[in-house]
Amino acid sequence: MVLSFVSIVISYVLVLLGMAFFTLLERKGLGYFQIRKGPNKVGLAGLPQPLADAAKLLTKEMVSPTMINVFPYFFAPVFSLILALMLWQLYPSEFLMTSIFWGILLFLCISSLNVYGTLVAGWASNSKYSLLGSLRAVAQTISYEVSLSLIMLFSLCVSSSFSFFNINLSNEYMWIGMLMVPISAVWYVSTLAETNRAPFDFAEGESEIVSGFNIEYSAGGFALIFMAEYTNILFMSMMSALLFFGGSFFIYSSDLMMFFKVLIFSFVFVWARATLPRLRYDLLMNLTWKGFLPVSLGGLIFVCGMKFLIELI
Hints:
Oligomer: single chain
Shape: globular
Structural class: mainly alpha
Radius of gyration: 20 Å
């Protein structure tokens, strides 16, 4: 029991460290995409910059508007970060003390709760901008969760298991993403929308609603909201690698192989932000309901039908 608790704590600390340095990767990447250096003044080549940002944000005075609903206002950022960290219990590492067999169901339960952190943060701020931003984010997240869930069922049908560890092993000799390229592309674009990232960052539309649901947050609350967002980005990158490009092939450690895959997928998040302009909101909703939903549903029916025929034969 003690070893399991220590393992969980170490995992959370390492996830938070990875999240911190992913912000540095994003800032440096955006800098080079825009033909500039990015942060390079703090320490050696700017490497301690995330630690300096965290120290600055967590030691600043937290300004609270007078009209907020106090408990939900302070609870929402903490709730979002807790959910983001809980998701990392599903990572199928070779060195974890425990493994969750019903991992897909737990992922669907926790990810469906993520919208409440955003909604409560926007509502509790008592600002029209924050409420509009949170409503847009909730509608967007719920819409794209439908196609995400159907594509996860697609991977489940291929691997015949609810466990992420077994799904990872089912990709050992042939990547599912290479067998069904359109489905894996739909999944990845849906993860961009699910995490409110460019070109689907409507919850933070600066030109329309100032800064969206987090407009009234500063200092520690602001830091917690973005820690949750970047932790979710890393987790969804891990999910993309796990569901469609899992397995270790010729490298002995699957954890080492997974590290490089997550690094590639998370960098594409940065690349998309630097390259693509923000869509219109109606185009975003049309894309999921009229585009992604039929494709993911058709792919699921096709795979289930093929598997049924193979079992009959």
